[in-house]
Amino acid sequence: MIDLNELAKQLNNGSLSVRGVYKARWEPGDYIGHTKAYPTENTSFVFALRGQAVFEFDGISYELSPGRVAHGAKNMTLNLKVGPHGFEYILIHYALIPSSGASAGYSMHHYALDTGENPIIVELLHRLNQTSATPGNIEAFEAKGLFYSILHEMLSSARSQSNRDSKHAIERVIDYIHSHYMNSFSLNELAGIAGMEIKPFSYHFSKYCGIFPIDYLIQQRMKHAKQLLAMSSCTIRDISTRVGYSDAHYFSRLFKIHVGCSPTLFRQTQGNYPPSI
């Protein structure tokens, strides 16, 4: 997963230049673009305009259609499989000289970004294509400004799209916790349900819910434990098991930390007096 903030930092801190802009269309079929003997010569962004195609950089495939951008670097293999309606796109070759002491970062990798269909990006791309075909220093300067505008719009749109996707993923995890709070699972498993790595998952979850995933799980377990303590005749050991804790003493300690009193005392305050452990 691409860290958009880090990508923006690398693009901002380095020195960018446009090396070529090309609008092209491929007809349906399979194409061998570059091999190990003749790898890609430029670092590039591919912006889909119409149709669908699969770009395969060094054996890794990215499906492109309007609203998705692919990035490839120098010295890569590239195969192309174009869908039944052809594929129209704008290709931007660029160079990035990293800031002093910094690595080339993402500019040396292949990846794809979901921006969603954005008419502003499309308009800027057409303007860049026209401007780059016109000779002159003023036109070259304008082209560079348009490229920066495209990158800004691309990153902003990708962030918005990521936030929407992340929200759906976090809601999926929340639903899972609500249905399976009594089961034992790790942070890594929850991140897997969201389709994320642990670090970004924890960040998005805490941003959306206000607390970290494991704390939310504990919160849900305590909520159900309080309901059982107040309304059932189950023993505390049984309640502990029902909400996901095999050790009743550990459950009691955790309950006191999060609720402020022991399970037995909480039950008594609710006017429920069945036998405890």
UniProtKB/TrEMBL annotation:
Keyword Transcription regulation: yes
UniProt-listed InterPro entries: Homeodomain-like_sf, HTH_AraC, Tscrpt_reg_AraC-type_HTH
Keywords assigned by UniProt, alphabetized: DNA-binding, Transcription, Transcription regulation
Pfam families: HTH_18
MF GO annotations: DNA-binding transcription factor activity; sequence-specific DNA binding
Domain HTH araC/xylS-type, residue spans: 171-269
Transmembrane segments: none
Signal peptide (UniProt feature, chain positions): none
UniProt xrefs under PANTHER family: ARAC-FAMILY TRANSCRIPTIONAL REGULATOR, HTH-TYPE TRANSCRIPTIONAL REGULATOR EXSA
Protein's name in the database: AraC family transcriptional regulator
Organism for this UniProt entry: Cohnella lupini
